[in-house]
Amino acid sequence: MSLDATVVCVWLMSGFDRPLHYRLPSSMEEQAEPGSLVRVPLGRRQTIGLVVEKDCEPDLPLMQLKLVLELVYPVPVMTPALLRLGSWLRQYYGASIQNVLETMIPGPVRQGMKAKQEKYVSAVKSVESEVLAALEKKAPKQFELYQFIAGQFRPQKKSLVLSRLSASPAAYTGLLKKGLILEEARKVERVAYDDELGDVEYATKQEIVLNEEQAACYESIAESVRAGKFTTHLLYGVTGSGKTEVYIAAMEEALKAGKSVLFLVPEVALTPQTVGRLRSRFTEHKDAHAVVWHSSLSDGERLDAWMALANGTARVVVGARSAVFAPLRNLGLVIVDEEHEPAFKQDETPRYHGRDVAVYRSFLENVVCVLGSATPSLESYRNVKRGKYKLDTLTKRIDDRELPMMHVVDMRIEMMRTRKPVTISTLLAEKLRDRWEKGEQSILFINRRGYNSTMLCTECGHVEECKHCSVPMTFHRSDNTLKCHLCGHEADPPWKCPECNSGAIRGKGSGTQRIEDVVKSILPRANVVRIDTDTMGKKHLFREILGDFRKGKIDLLVGTQMIAKGLDFPNVTLVGMVDADLSLHVPDFRANERTFQLLVQVSGRAGRGDLAGEVVVQTFTPHAEPIQFARRGEVDAFLEVEIESREQFQYPPFRHLVRQVFRSRNADKAVFFAEQFARKVEARMAGKIEMRGPTPCAVEKMKDQYRFHIWYFTQNVSGLMRELKAVEAEVPLPKDVVQIFDVDPMSVS
Ligand code: ADP
Ligand code: ZN
Ligand code: ZN
Fold first, then answer.
1. Is 487 within any annotated ligand binding site?
2. Which of 301, 364, 306, 310 lies closest to 86, judged by CA?
3. Which of 159, 165, 130 lies closest to 145 in space, CA to CA?
4. Does the N-terminal peptide bond of residue 653 adopt cis geometry, omega within 30 degrees of 0?
5. DSSP 114
6. Which residue minimizes the CA distance to atom 24 of ligand 1?
7. How far is the C-alpha of 338 from the C-alpha of 373, rounded, in Å?
8. Residue 697 annotated as binding?
9. Is 512 helix (H, G, I), strand (E, B) or coil?
10. What are the residue ranges of helices labelled H in 366-405?
């Protein structure tokens, strides 16, 4: 063996948490690069791995290194910057190599799925007539099949031909053997973008000329794009101020320079209008093929899309958080729309935040990152104040449209007046009627699906809880069941109280289903449609409903806030927030921020056309800060007050939080190991770490598992995670206890 054999360092897909070294056979020396997928031997098995380094120092004598067996794809599936991003993910989020690979590389690619080949068939033309006559006599089925194939203008898919004629495979094979037809394998191009996604109707619009403010924001971003250095811009623009047009102009700047663009949205399915607009602009650019990356792509589409990016055919990706790992080459611009959205946070290990990863990737690639929002996160706001991010502001709505007027209804007074529980206040009911009479549209938001939030015994106060989770069950009237929104468990509603036998069981609290009912009783002749995850089970229903809403076939939409993202309907002049308190009175330091963002985003759906909009917010705590600031439309003032209180308590963004959860079916075991872990950490980092717990999680039992958490506060996440991983190695857990790290958690329950 020659001494200059190339050694590669490989991350394996199959659970090894350290890199292994392999030798490259000389046939692969040129082609295998960092980012290439390779098939390698592991013991007596074979597995797929990712080359993370080439020409590295082997940890064994060369002779003992095994040879790489095969290059899975001719092009690397990850770029050098993505490899570095992977190492960072591993460190920062405390993830294993396998976690990182599974997160960054889509399944079909990781498993080495091959591009699809389909057999095409054509007839041999110059067949003598006697041969055909003989065939007709002796094998009429073959003859019939031959005639059909010969009659086609170009080669046809074999599968299609067989199914159309219901011809037998035997007849086909017969023809093949006789040399009367020819077969060829062709690679099938699956379309990587889904025409059914995205609100196309909405997209076909007139040419747009940026207004003065938009142009200034665009110039500021374009200047950074031209400079080609890592710079993060916060595009802070009120709802309806035309942020998307600024993104599009900036994207064109990057594409013009031959660069590629990554565009992240909180959820593709929920932002059909944004996606539709981008698609219509960028799928036209023949040289800048756009890929829409979303969860309902088939495996084949996923593979093709990934490869189109890896080999540079596609230069634009629009997608939800996992698109942040798209193998774009020559990246020039990264955009994160609605950067404040909690949906960017992944809720499985590694629990990464799409926005944070996007910023870090931009840093690694030395490119421009634009974060856009009408209600920036405290994290981004602080980075502006610290001078880390550039601020570009859009203060006015397009065509100087007014921001909607917000009325806050004090539900305590409402209840005192009517002496009974109220779902829709007099004011909101009046305004709903008024809009309907005028032929204008309204949207009502309530952040809870189902009919009632709880089934309560009015005698003893017993609440029906899920038997697997420590949360109340929600009543769904459509199928007359109680459902657990955490684990999906279903049960029949009780006839009598299991505690006191009383029959006085009542539903309490309203969900979307009940609001739909109440509204239908207020506006019996209006067309009211409900839209939430329950109605969205059916594919395309969401898009259809939005289409009908735009055409004016629907008068009033009732939905959870999840549907509010980026909707732009000019005829909506009233938005109601049925219960603003749902997100407010929860034990979470982000409750104020979340509530404020919801109120502003939701009211941003009103008055986007020529008619002015109004918002009605119902609450039992009208003086709460987020409600008052939202009412006055004072985003800056809210951010100032909120950041002060965060600083006072040294909550994020002033320090990072790491949450560690221990769970087990056996509560005692979960506590025991959590405490053991905490003691080890204390001993190891004596006095150098601030931590709290273990304590029971707010939702103590979930899916039959008891849960306890420890909280760590730090300025240096990677440093802390290194220590915690070391402790993890010292505290082996039994099989029935699981622990997970959540760095920068968005949920504290
Ligand atoms: P935002 O994302 O800030 O809420 P959008 O980008 O959705 O705002 O823009 C709101 C509406 O204004 C859209 O219908 C968009 O097509 C339109 N719009 C944006 N910029 C312009 C412009 N310069 N001239 C005319 N219409 C515009
Ligand atoms: Zn009872
Ligand atoms: Zn449950």
1. yes
2. 364
3. 165
4. yes
5. P
6. 208
7. 5
8. no
9. helix
10. 378-385
Q: Return the residue whose CA atom lies nearest to atom 9 of ligand 1.
A: 242
467 C-alpha vs ligand 3 centroid, how far in Å? 6
pLDDT per position as a tens digit, 342-375? 999 998 889 999 999 999 999 999 999 999 999 9
Q: How far is CA 357 from CA 80, 352, 604, in A?
A: 16, 7, 28
Sorting pLDDT into bands at 50, 70 and 90, what band is 533? confident
Mean pLDDT for 163-172 is 79
What single letter denotes the amino acid at residue 43?
Answer: G
Query: Of 663, 747, 661, which Cα lies nearest the Cα of 705?
Result: 663
418 CA distance to ligand 3 centroid (A)? 36
The bridge status of strand 656-664 relative to strand 705-714 is antiparallel
C-alpha dihedral sign at 672, 676, 677, 681: positive
pLDDT digits (tens, 9 = 90+) for 43-57: 889 999 999 999 888
Within 10 angstroms of residue 718's Cβ, the number of other Cβ atoms is 13
What lies within 8 Å, CB to CB, of 24 at 6+ separation is 5, 6, 7, 8, 32, 54, 67, 68
Give the tokens for residue 535. 């109605």
Read off the pLDDT of residues 645-671 as tens digits, 9 standing for 90 and up. Answer: 999 989 999 999 999 999 999 999 999
9 is in an annotated binding site: no
603 lines ligand 1 (CB under 6 A): no
H or E element, residue 196 = none
Cis before 472? omega within 30: no
Half-sphere exposure of 253 (CA within 13 A, CB side): 22
